[in-house]
Amino acid sequence: MDTWAPIADIAAAVNDGKTTASENVEKALQNIEDKAEFKAIISLTADRARKRAKQIDEHVKSGKPAGRLAGVPFIAKDNFLTFGGETTAASNILKGFNAPYQSTAVENLEAEGAICVAKANLDAFAHGSSTENSDFFTTLNPHDKTRVPGGSSGGSAAAVVLGMAPFALGSDTGGSIRLPASFTGCVGYKPTYGLVSRSGVVAMASSLDCIGPFARTVSDAAIVLDVMSGKDPLDSTTIERSKNSYTDLELDVEGKTIGIIKEYMGEGLEPEVRKLIDAGVEKLKNAGAVIKEVSLPSLPLALAVYYIICPAEVSSNLSRYDGQRFGYSDLDAKTLEESYEMSREKGFGREAKRRIMIGTYVLSSGYYDAYYKKAQTVRTKLINEFSAAFKEVDFLLGPTAPSTAFKIGENVDDPLKMYLIDIMTVAANLVGVPSISVPCGMVEGLPVGLQLMAAQTCDRELLSLAKAFEELNV
Fold first, then answer.
1. Residue 152 designated active-site
2. Which of 74, 151, 290, 454 minimizes the number of CB atoms within 10 Å of its CB?
3. Catalytic, out of 77, 119, 190, 467
């Protein structure tokens, strides 16, 4: 399925005139067409991609370098505002919406010569763990068409594994990059909160949302992060990036202390998944890493905390979709109130409505203290426990998910079972630390991801460990 050279090599070949951006764009569009049965893509941005490729090729011909990502095609999750096509967030309420500006992440990538060729499928508004909540269609897992690719960035992950583009963009609010990376067998990176601007990405839960890449290798993920990251005046939560490049990776694990998260290795973890995680730990140990068990006592509460805070912020963020300013508007409505009701009734899917109701409930008078305030208190406790753990160890390790990809339709009628899929990924978002899923083997033909975490702003160190593990695991 893998048909692309490393990203740095693709860009170097374009800058050296050995290949053209136009050839790369046509290859990506052809691959998308050839793998259309997997339903990873909502729409193409082909006309604009071809135009940009032509400009890059002319730039190179005139003897100027066209950037670190010159002529590298990529796919954006369809909650990123982009030119050249609609941005729908896979929801009927945004069908037909053309963005008036682009997200900062996409602008940064384009400034270095990257070319967006398509928009990937997702759970509508990024609410879900399987892409089954897309209002349009369910993406199929590249390894088994009867199974989900994970979510909410399932289309982006599947696109990379299917070779549609060398990398894709995703958003991660509670595991939406790492879970699909685990289920499809690619690298998925969630940076430190605020390292990549959220400006121009459809908001889900603003204190949790992170922007990150899917790639086939850690080195490819690192170069994309390096281009996207940094302060942005359009997003007040952004932080200063590292002075050193995120591609400058040190692969020596000798003496590095890695904490195995006790709470992730017990009940509910499939035995075959555990075996692969244990084997991965053994490889790191043999390479000189110091392995110890770490307990984070509040971790079992993380999922409950997440499913109070996240819907509360969803309820607030989705209130802007009222059928008046943009997106779907019901024209049969007779009054303004009717227009609100009917536009939302037809425009929002089941999961969006469920999260709006839960969120509005926990924020309502009489319940705010009992639920929302208590959840924020436990969130602070989790932050303190992670901070204490990172004083003892350099990194934390565990599985990305308790199982391999489940069957399409298996959890659709059981929201609680579906929410439990996020049990190992939500904590990193609640505490704002960087986290990565790297492939660590297969169980009956299905990929398994190993999850690594580091302290806030230690993104380069985390990518270094992930790259070292990737090389040990070959």
1. yes
2. 290
3. 77
Full set of structural domains in the chain with CATH: 7-228 (3.90.1300.10)
Three-state SS for 409?
coil
Bridge partners of 258, per DSSP, are 291, 395
In angstroms, the CA 253 to CA 102 distance is 39
Catalytic residue among 103, 129, 130, 152: 152
Whether 176 is catalytic: yes
Catalytic residue among 91, 156, 171, 176: 176
- Is 77 an annotated catalytic residue? yes
d(CA 172, CA 426): 9
pLDDT in tens, 27-60: 999 999 999 999 999 999 999 999 999 999 999 9
Alpha helices, H only, 318-433:
336-347, 350-363, 374-392, 415-420, 426-431
Pairing of strands 187-190, 446-454: unpaired
pLDDT digits (tens, 9 = 90+) for 367-420: 999 999 999 999 999 999 999 999 999 999 999 999 999 999 999 888 888 888
Cβ contacts of 100-105, under 8 Å, gap ≥ 24: 101/200, 102/200, 103/76, 103/197, 103/199, 103/200, 103/201, 104/197, 104/199, 104/200, 104/232, 104/234, 104/235, 105/80, 105/169, 105/196, 105/197, 105/200, 105/201, 105/211, 105/228
Q: What is the pTM of this model?
A: 0.96
Helix (H, G, I), strand (E, B) or coil at 446: strand
Biggest alpha carbon–alpha carbon distance for the chain: 71
The pLDDT tens digits for 249-285 are 999 999 999 999 999 999 899 999 999 999 999 999 9
